[in-house]
Amino acid sequence: MTLLHISASPREALSHSRKIGQMLVDRLCAETGLEVTRRDLAQTPPPWPDGRFAEASLCPDDQRTKRHRRDLEISESLIAELEAADALVIDSPMHNFTVPATFKAWIDLVVRPNRTFRGTPAGKVGLLADRPVVLVMASGGPVGEAPPAQTDFLTPYLRYVLATIGLRDLSTICLDSLRRGPDAVDRAETAAMARIDGIAAHVRDRLDRQALAAKASAAT
User: Per the database record, which ranges form the Flavodoxin-like fold domain (predicted)?
Assistant: First the structure.
C-alpha cells in the first residue's frame, strides 16, 4: 500500500507543518508498512496552468491532439500519484489565510473536468475513490472566529476541493500562534502531537477496510 506525502512549506527544515507531517508519516509507515511517495511542492514547484493547459484540459478526450496530450503530461502524472495512493498526508502553512501559491498550482493541475470530477445537473461528482487524507496546517497567528484570531480559509477550501474529486475523509491537525514565541510553539506542537494517535488509528482502520473491500471485489 502507498502513502502520498505532499509538503508545501518553503521553510524546509524550519517548517512546523513539515515537522509534524513527517512525524505522522513515520508513525503510519512503522505501523502499516506503507510505502511513501513524496511530492515536495516547494523544492519542485509545479508549473502554473497556462492557456495551453486550459485548452487541452477542456478539449474532449477523443479530440485531443498530440500537443494537447503533451500539455497535460504533468497533470496526468500528478493525478496518477493520487490514484495510486491509499492514503494522503498533506502538510502546508497558511499563506494569506489560504493555501500557498505552489499548492494552488497543484490543485489546479489535478482538479480537472471529466478526469477527476464530472459536471452534472446536480453539481460536480468526484471520479476518484475516497481514501483517508490528513492535513497538517501551520499558521503564524492564532486561528479562530473572533479578533485577534484570523479566519482559516485554507481548511474549508481544501475540504471542498478534495470532496469535489471524491476525497471526503479529511482529518486535520492545526498548529497556530507559531509566531508568538517559543512557549506558543511548544503548546502548538504538543497539541498537534497529541492528535497523532487518534488520526493514525483512524487511517489504519480505513486502510484495513479498504484492503478487505479490495479482496472481496477481487473474489467476485
Answer: 1-196
Q: Which of 219, 220, 212, 211 is nearest to 87 (CA)?
A: 211
> Which contacts (CB < 8 Å, 24+ apart) does range 153-159 have?
153/97, 153/98, 154/92, 154/94, 154/97, 154/98, 154/99, 157/98, 157/99, 158/90, 158/99
DSSP 165: T
> Which CATH number, 1.10.246.10, 3.90.1150.10, 3.40.50.620, 3.40.50.360, labels domain 2-219?
3.40.50.360
**Are 2 and 35 within 8 A, CB to CB?**
yes
Asked whether residue 17 is marked as a ligand-binding residue, the answer is yes
Residue 15 assigned to a binding site: yes
Determine which helix (DSSP H) or strand (DSSP E) holds 166, and give its type and residue range: none
Q: DSSP letter at 196?
A: H
Would you say 9 is a known binding-site residue? yes
Q: What is the pLDDT of residues 55-75, one digit of tens each?
A: 999 999 999 999 999 999 999
Rounded-to-integer distance, Cα 93 and Cα 175, Å: 9
- Read off the C-alpha cell for 24: 505522522
- Angle (deg, nearest 10), helices 73-84 and 101-110: 90
Q: What is the mean pLDDT of residues 3-12?
A: 98
